[in-house]
Automatic annotation (TrEMBL):
Belongs to the CorA metal ion transporter (MIT) (TC 1.A.35) family. The chain crosses the membrane at residues 262-281, 293-313. The keyword Amino-acid biosynthesis does not apply. GO terms for cellular component: plasma membrane. It is a multi-pass membrane protein. Coiled coil: none annotated. It is found in: Cell membrane; Membrane. The lineage of its organism: Bacteria, Bacillati, Bacillota, Bacilli, Bacillales. This is Magnesium transport protein CorA.
Amino acid sequence: MIRILGVTHDHKVESDIALEQIKNSAKYKWSWIDFNEPTPEESEQLSTFFQFHPLAIEDCLMVLQRPKVDYYEEYQFLVLHALDPDKLATVEVNLFIGSTYLVSFHHHSLTEIDEVWEAMEKRSHDRKNWARDPFAAAYMVIDKLVDQYFPSVYSIEDELDDLEKKGASESVEVLMNQVFDLRGRLLKLRRTIVPMRDMMYRILNSQHIQGEKEHRAYFADIYDHLLKLSEMIESDREMTADLRDSYISLNSNRMNGIMKTLTVITTVFMPLTLIAGIYGMNFQNMPELGWRYGYATVLLIMALLGAWMILWFKKRGWFK
């Protein structure tokens, strides 16, 4: 579907406009053309009607591209990433920003684009609304996309807090699985947010985009949001690494405690086993075999020896 929104010179917004009306019409100061889940026939309008560069069109049709900005003679081409909060999968959004038009192209319907579209229509008579040119509308789209990153990051931070509280009640195996799951999700977010941050930094420091200078403060605000998100992700990744190391150390300490217990038990029974082994060989001429109190005496010696070894180990601090 192709939908068109036209902004007149007195800042009124008109929708449901035919594509042919905006080509040579002096009525509109600028227009926003949104390719929402376009068909192959509609996608051909990028080359036949707008005559965009073939490489830019190829980037639109071949998903997923890394977030980037390309500069052409009469327009700028941006590749953006929206985020599916459920699967943390990225959805590509392409923007062509010219002096009199904004063209958005996306293969999946996005609530962020719809919200900006509705906001533009509702504020059609607001002359104080600063969104009066394609760059302003592009800012609103990018800002809305970036705002949708925050809930996913905040959700992971909440899970990390819960994970720290459950450290004493859950098994190490369960905790480790949860930590690695969180690290995997953080990696997905990082692959989306960091390239978007780098792209926004390039826009802010570019001399090619003239319209961006008028709204530099707004684009700088988006960059600050992305910078905050990337710092949060790096902090969360460090926290998961610390939790992972803590759980590994905890598991190692538990294993050391188990091995210490088994070692003490084995050490205590070694001399007892030696005594039992010697007197269990059943040779005829072994001493004390015919002694009436030999059995009870050997048991007493074994008990005293075991008790003495336990007390000696305790004095040496083996049970601490």
